[in-house]
C-alpha cells in the first residue's frame, strides 16, 4: 500500500511541472499554479517568476492595447490622469531623496523617458519642472489623445520597435509596464543602453509577493492576462535586472496608490486592512514592487 501511495504522489507531483520557458531566466522547469483565462499561470523553479502561458504574439498584444474597450478602461482608471502623474512625481522625488544622492527637484534640463507613457501625463509633469521629456507607447490611439504638441514627443510601438541613441537619458521610468512585456530582460537591456553613465531607471510593478496577492491568491484583481503576462516579486525582479546588466540596484515595495474596494467589509475590518497595507512595505509585502537601477559610470 505504501508503494502505491508513493507512486501516486509522484504522479501528482509530475503533473504540477511543465517545460514552459521562463521569460526571465530561460529555465524550462516551472510549476503549474492554476488555470486562468485561456491558459494558466506557472512559476519558474529557478528565479520564482510567475508568468502566463501561452504567451500572445506581438501583433495580438498591439491589437489588444489599441482596442477601444481597453483604451476607455485605461482612460478612466484611477492610475491614469494628471492627478496620479503628480502623485507619482512626488513619490519619485521622495524615493530619490531617501535612496540616492540625486534630487529630482534640482535637476532641470536633463533628459527623461517614460516607457509606456499612455497619454503622456507624466511627461507633462516633468516638462513643467524643466526636464526634456520623451515617451514610448504601444497604442497609437493613446498617443492621439496626448494632445497637440505632445504627439511628436512620443514614439509609437513596443519597446523592441522604438529606438533612441545610446547613453542619451538621465532618467527612465517604467510604471506598470514590465508585467506587460513578452521579453522583460531584453527590454531592460535596451533601457540600460539608453541611459547615460550614472543614469537611473525606475520601475514599478504589482508585487506578487505582496500582502494583497498572498491573501487573495487566484482572486487577486491584478491577475489579468493577456494584459499582465509576468508577475514579479523581489527575487525575480532582482534576477531580471542582474541578467540585463545592472550591477547596482535597489528593490523595495510600497503601499498601493489605490486600494481595492473595501466597501463590502465592516468599518472596523476596513480600518484594520488599511493599517495592514500601510505596514506591509516594512516587511517587504507592499502592494507595489519598485526598483531603482543605475547604469555604471
Describe the overall structure.
By secondary structure, the protein is an alpha/beta fold. The chain has one domain: Rossmann fold, CATH 3.40.50.150. The chain is built from 10 helices and 12 strands. It has helices spanning 2-15, 58-66, 68-75, 82-99, 121-128, 140-144, 184-194, 211-216, 234-243, 267-279; strands spanning 17-18, 30-36, 39-44, 50-53, 111-115, 132-137, 154-156, 169-175, 195-206, 230-231, 248-254, 288-294. The strands form 2 sheets. It has a 7-stranded mixed β-sheet with strand order 7-6-5-8-9-12-11, sandwiched between helices. Strands 1-2-3-4-10 form a 5-stranded antiparallel β-sheet. Strand 3 and strand 4 form a beta hairpin. Helix 4 crosses helix 5 (121-128). The longest helix is centred in the first third of the chain and has 18 residues, at 82-99. It is globular, with a radius of gyration of 20 Å.
